[in-house]
Amino acid sequence: xxxxxxxxxxxxxxxxxxxxxxxxxxxxxxxxxxxxxxxxxxxxxxxxxxxxxxxxxxxxxxxxxxxxxxxxxxxxxxxxxxxxxxxxxxxxxxxxxxxxxxxxxxxxxxxxxxxxxxxxxxxxxxxxxxxxxxxxxxxxxxxxxxxxxxxxxxxxxxxxxxxxxxxxxxxxxxxxxxxxxxxxxxxxxxxxxxxxxxxxxxxxxxxxxxxxxxxxxxxxxxxxxxxxxxxxxxxxxxxxxxxxxxxxxxxxxxxxxxxxxxxxxxxxxxxxxxxxxxxxxxxxxxxxxxxxxxxxxxxxxxxxxxxxxxxxxxxxx
Length: 317
Description:
Layout: H1 2-28, H2 34-39, H3 45-54, H4 61-73, H5 87-122, H6 127-141, H7 144-158, H8 172-176, H9 179-209, H10 213-219, H11 224-246, H12 248-262, H13 267-276, H14 280-308
Helix pairs in contact: 1-14, 5-6, 5-9, 6-9, 7-9, 7-12, 9-11, 9-12, 11-14, 12-13, 13-14
C-alpha cells in the first residue's frame, strides 16, 4: 500500500508539472495582445513596452516559463494584470465560496443519486426505473447554462420562489446570509451531478445484485433491507467513488458556467473574467489549483477504494 501511494504521488507531481507546461504554452499561444487588452486599444507603444517589460512578457517563452515555475515554487502565483491584486489573495477570497457551492452540490447529489440508483437497480425494468432513467438522461444531456436559465425562468421569473442572482459579496458569510439566492446555483450543479452519479450507481448495483454471494447471505435469513444496505450498497459504491474523484474537472467546468449565469463571485467567474481580459497569472493559477485538486481527488478516491474493498492489494500493482 505504501509503495503504491508513493508511486501515485510521484505520478501526480509529473502530471502537475506537465499541466503547468501545457497550460502555459496554450495560454501564450492565445491570439491578441495582453498589453492592449489590459491597457486599452488606445495605449501608446511606450506604455505597451513598459507593461511587457514590467511583467517579463518581452522575454523568450522558455525564460518566462522558468520564471513562472520558480515563482510558484516560492509560493507566489503572481499579480493579476487586470485587477492588480495578488492572485493568491484573489483565490483566498473566492475559494471558500467555491467550496460552499461545489461541496454542498456534490453532497446533495450523492444523497439523491445513491438511493435513486439503488432503487432503480432493485426495480429495474419497471415503470419507476424507466421514468427515472429518462429524467437522468435528459439532465445528463442538458447543457449547464440551459438548465440554469430554465430554473431561473421557472423558480425566479414565473413563481418568484427564489432569487435569480446569487448572493452578492465575495465572502462566504455573505453567501450564507442570503440562502434564497444560493438555492438555484446549488440546485443547478446538483442536478447535473445526479444524472451521472445515479447512472453509475444503478449499473454497479445491478452488477452486485447478480453476484453469487448474495444467495448465501439471503439463505442465512438476513432481511432484504440489511442485504441491500450492508452488502449491495457497499460493494456498489466502489465504481462511484472513482467517478466522484474523476468528476472534479467537469464539475469545475459546470461551475464556470453557473457562476457566470448567476453572477456568483467564485473561482469560476474569476476564471471567466481572466480569460476575457488575457489575465495570464489568474488563468495559470486557476488551472494549477484545479489540476492539483483533481490529482489529490483521484488519490483520495484510490485510498477510499482500498478502504471499501479490503481485497484490493496495491502492492502487486
